[in-house]
Amino acid sequence: MGTNDLNRRKFMGKLGAGSLAMLTATAMPSHGKHSNGNIDKLAVLGGEPIRKNKAWPQWPYVDEKMVESIVKTTRSGKWSRIDIANGSVATFEKEYAKLLGANYCVGTGSGTQALSTCVEALGIGPGDEVVTSPYTDMGTVSAIITSRALPVLAELDPDSYQLDPYDVEKKITPNTKAIIPVYIGGVPCDIDRIMAIAKKHNLKVIEDSCQAHLASYKGRKLGTIGDLGCFSFQGSKQIACGEGGAIIGNDQALMEQCYTVQNHGTARNGKHVTIGPKYRMNEFEGSILLGQLDTVQERFRIRNENADYLNAKLKDFPGLVPQKRYEGTESAGLYIYALTYHKEHFGNADRSKFLKAIQAEGIGFSGYIANGLHREPWVDHILGLRSYKQMYTANRLKQYKEDMNLPKCDLACSRMVSLWASGTLLGTKQDMDNIIDAIMKVYDNRDKLHSL
Ligand SMILES: Cc1ncc(COP(=O)(O)O)c(C=O)c1O
């Protein structure tokens, strides 16, 4: 056995007394004690899976209150927010702002629309640059290029999958107007340092909190730290309505500008004053969101408790290292539960083999984002557009293309394994123990992974 190898006994020996008690009391029993004696053999090779015919908590979450809320809206015949002054969208906006400790909230039709509205409302457009992460949903970049601004992608800290503030500062040019930090997995990034950089260079900050509902950092909810914060309520998100989004902020004039932009440039007083698409949230979306608000904090608590439990159990296991958290992190949104796969501790087996084996055990780990956004075709597409060639110098665009070399992001993409957390992390302790048991079973069988 090489120096990187750690058998189950040694792994348990390395755990602290508390974790060891937890592990022996819970995670140990199922693995190896099934009657047919086949549980030790990998399921992918014909053994008995750790988890068989056992459903994970249903996602999206649905309860009677949500159903009643949507029925009430359907019967009311008031389906657009402009049909009713204090309808479900307006009420949701008030309640959501209160929940996060923000002064104002504006609903939109998606997280992408929320981000796009902010870019436009801040007056960012052709010729301007915005620094953001390559490790995010395309919606982040889409919001910038929709306004024909230039999305400048900075490097990651490969252990947190979040923006590296040092590289963010390096990517700032005289044309930079804003930073869009992304909270990947709903976990706080190094936002204090990013805010300090923004202040130093007089830049706006739009927090992409699309995965970070209710998460907090140094006493503040994510989304309330920068100038504006954006959320997604797409069906897989922890607060969901199919497609939906929201902007939160404390600056009344800026938030009114956001309202006007998402209302096709029409202010609340009916005057058509500026450029804006029609991105309004509708009353059905508002009502399904409103119907779940009373219970979202409880689900948030359970997800955090389960993530902490898994993190504690994996604390001394070098093969899978939980997403790094920065000092000041108090809780996480947990859209995904993410770990870094270190293949040297799994007999150098590729991540794909680990995933194949653990999925067969009934645990749905996947690789999440396959490629950083710097590797996607939109880069060459915008570089070929007349609008970009007119607004940016040839030298700038040449440098831009050269800067699309982000090896730390590539490393993060190749090593991360994750679980969709909205539903999965609502499971019981036994469900969480199944996850640990499956990891340890695959680990114990790491010499067989090469044959898969
Ligand atoms: C980090 C991040 N930003 C932006 C978005 C875009 O949100 P939506 O899908 O609601 O447009 C998402 C959605 O997955 C996201 O995860």
Strand order of the largest sheet: 1-11-10-7-6-2-3
Number of strands: 14
CATH topology of the largest domain, by name, is Aspartate Aminotransferase, domain 2
Structural class: alpha/beta
**What's the CATH first level of the largest domain?**
Alpha Beta
Radius of gyration: 23 Å
Shape: globular
What small molecules are bound in this structure? pyridoxal-5'-phosphate
Number of domains: 2
User: Per CATH, which architecture of the largest domain?
Assistant: 3-Layer(aba) Sandwich
- CATH level-4 homologous superfamily of the largest domain: Type I PLP-dependent aspartate aminotransferase-like (Major domain)
Short description:
This protein is an alpha/beta fold and about 450 residues long. It has 17 helices and 14 strands.
SSE layout and pairings?
Layout: H1 8-14, H2 17-30, H3 64-76, H4 88-100, E1 104-108, H5 111-121, E2 129-132, H6 138-145, E3 150-153, E4 156-157, E5 162-163, H7 165-170, E6 176-180, H8 191-201, E7 204-208, E8 216-217, E9 220-221, E10 228-232, E11 245-249, H9 252-262, H10 283-313, E12 320-322, E13 336-341, H11 351-360, H12 378-383, H13 386-391, H14 394-402, H15 407-415, E14 416-420, H16 421-424, H17 429-444
Parallel strand pairs: 2-3, 2-6, 6-7, 7-10
Antiparallel strand pairs: 1-11, 4-5, 8-9, 10-11, 12-13, 13-14
